[in-house]
Amino acid sequence: GLTREEGLRLAAESIERAIAGIDLAGKDFRILIENTAGAEFSLGGKLEQVAELVERLRVHAPVAVCLDTCHIHVAGYDIVSADGYVETMKLVESTVGFDAVRVWHCNDAKAAMGSKLDRHEHIGEGTIGAEAFRRLLHDARFAHAAFIAETPVDAPGDEARNVGVLRTLAAG
After folding, report:
1. CA–CA dist 171, 100 (Å, integer)
2. Nearest alpha-carbon partner for 91 in 32, 51, 136
3. Which terminus, N or C, of the chain has the lesser number of Cβ atoms within 10 Å?
């Protein structure tokens, strides 16, 4: 029931309270703000909202960004087509900035682009597809970032299989 502005303020204040009294000086520590799928009444589905929250927190704590491939896709950002990827990366640069992106959660999507449904799928088996992951993994602007498979586990070995697919895409 809060407005967007009230929600951003509450989120920032809550994180500030959670870290109050913790000595972060000289520590290699970052709070990562992750984008969301953009479901109704949620914040973070727009890259501008992620950037706003990061800016609000920056004066209180070391903060950076985690982008989730499924969330980006279902929030309506095109990372599948080559032209869409270019346009989406222009938005990443102008909002959160490439340097702030320290982690990518890699997972394909069961739902369509813009659906706002956060349903993860195995790498290369969903509506994002393998080529989009190959493009992302080869993007030199994210050479400093960690890539973490955050995929479903439907059967034993799924974790290793998805990491293997990402490794193959990164190598070739």
Report:
1. 25
2. 51
3. N
